[in-house]
């Protein structure tokens, strides 16, 4: 890490904490200072800023921030950006774009079971709804997606590493049954 990037992970975490504490303006200002950093640090800032902008009702602004990440391909940040873009599109009422984004996500070979909610932020402002959501594609013969295995909870960060491991264990048997 270079001198300029040295404190960036801590600043990203502080921005998330500010957002969690209700200081959306402060968090957004911190993220916007970091948007143009190269690599994953700038990408994390874009994801955080896009989430806050989307929650304010500016779906188009959030999608514009996510565009560079969507071009990254099949890496983890590209997958997170696809999920977030699909969520934003859904909030905007654009079900076609949301569906297309989720289909692209499911087609990615690198999709991690935790990609949907890596920091436990999904639905954090939706009391009584999904605070944690995770999903994984079920692949049949030839690698085609035959279904999706999904879990959700109203509690943030509801699933332990053991639960995630168990979910991964049932992936193949469930795909066989469905296929």
Write up this protein:
There is one protein chain. By secondary structure, the protein is mainly alpha-helical. Helices cover 56% and strands 9% of the residues. It has helices spanning 8-20, 24-34, 39-55, 59-70, 76-91, 95-107, 161-178, and strands at residues 132-139, 145-153. A two-stranded antiparallel sheet has the order 1-2. The longest helix is centred in the C-terminal third of the chain and has 18 residues, at 161-178. The termini are far apart.
What is the rounded distance between the termini? 47 Å
Shape: globular
Biggest sheet, in brief?
A: 2 strands, antiparallel
Task: Let me know the number of strands.
Answer: 2
Cα gyration radius (Å): 17 Å
Q: Provide the structure class.
A: mainly alpha
List unreliable stretches of 5+ residues. Answer: 113-117, 122-128
Strand order of the largest sheet: 1-2
Can you write the helix and strand succession as a string? HHHHHHEEH
The total count of helices amounts to 7
How much helix is in the residues?
55-70%
Indicate the proportion of strand residues.
Answer: 5-15%
Mean pLDDT: 76
